[in-house]
Every structure is written in structure tokens, then in C-alpha cells.
Write a structure and sequence with these properties.
- This protein folds into two domains: 4-96, no CATH class; 108-184, no CATH class.
- 56% of the residues lie in helices and 10% in strands.
- It contains six helices and three strands, in the order H-E-E-E-H-H-H-H-H.
- The chain has a three-stranded antiparallel sheet.
- It starts with a helix and ends in a 12-residue tail after the last helix.
- Mean pLDDT is 75; it is low at 19-25 and 192-196.
Amino acid sequence: MFDNHTKLVRRAAVALSLAVLIGCNPQAVRKGENGQQETGRVLAVVNGSALTTDDFEKEVETLPVDLKPMAHTAEGKEELLDTMIVRELIMQEAIKDNTGRSRAAVDKLDGLKKRILVDEYLQKKIKEQNKASVAPAKPQKVLQEIKEELKKSARIIIPEEDGVDAGDENNLNPQQLKLLRHLLDRDLTGDDVHPR
């Protein structure tokens, strides 16, 4: 997309911006997700929106394990900050364009919210189980225990389809079986446990 000269100029501009901002050591104060004030050294300001060291560290936490060491090199930090800046610019344009208000976008956001809630719940249960036992809990085992516990107290009805009896809750159609197998083959970070 960009030639080497353009990339070099862009990286130099980001590095210079970082040096100036770090040297000035400005602080950004804003309300965090939990309503408490968050502060952090400003790394970049994108159309009035500050990207701070706290934002950067949160971004590093979301990286896959094999990419985290990259974020501790000068080039990796520069690349990650550039990615954050571009994402912020795109987000600002999407907001101006009212993107995200369609039914499809709302449905996607609802789906992501459900996944996040499930992940948070499972992480919490694993931490609780790890505190309560001597040996660390395996995610698959905890997931299986939670699944069995929840199924005991839930009423699950799968509609009759292609000869599947609606009264038999253990019968799943091929699509449901495939989804269940996929979910069980993933660990809690979302990475495939058994690569295909």
C-alpha cells in the first residue's frame, strides 16, 4: 500500500511525535470504564482524543501471547501506536458517518457483548477454582463443570427439525453439534486448542 519511503517518513513522524510527547510528559485525565478517573502520559492526540500510556498498556494486554514481546521493542511500540492512531481515526470517521446504527451492526455488538460476558464469567470461575484448589484448574474441565451445572437448572428445548424430537433435549442438529464442538475446542482466550 505504501512504498518504503512513505513508510519511513511515517515512522519517523510517529517516532518524533513520541519523543516530543514523552519529553513534554503531558497527562490526560478522563473517566474510565468503571467511572473512576484514569490518568496516563499522552502518547498521541488524534483530533482531540488522547491516546495514553494506559491505553497502550491495555492494547498490549489484548495482544496474543506470541506477539506481546514485539510490543516491548522500539519498532514494535511504534507500530502498535500507529495501529492505535489509525484505529482511532477510523472510529472517529465511523461515528461521524453514523456507522453502527444498522440492525446488523447492533446484532453484532450484542453478540460480542454476550461473548465478552461469557468469557468474563468463565475467567472469574477459573480464578475462584484456582484459589480454592492446590492444582490449577484446566479451562476445559472448568467449562465442562459449568456446563453440567447450568444444564441441571436450565430447561433446554431444541425445536423439532428434520426428525429430531423436540422433547429429547440431547439431540442436536448437525449445525448445533458443529458449533458446540467448535466452542469446546477453543480455550478461554479464544485460541484454538486443537488447530485444524
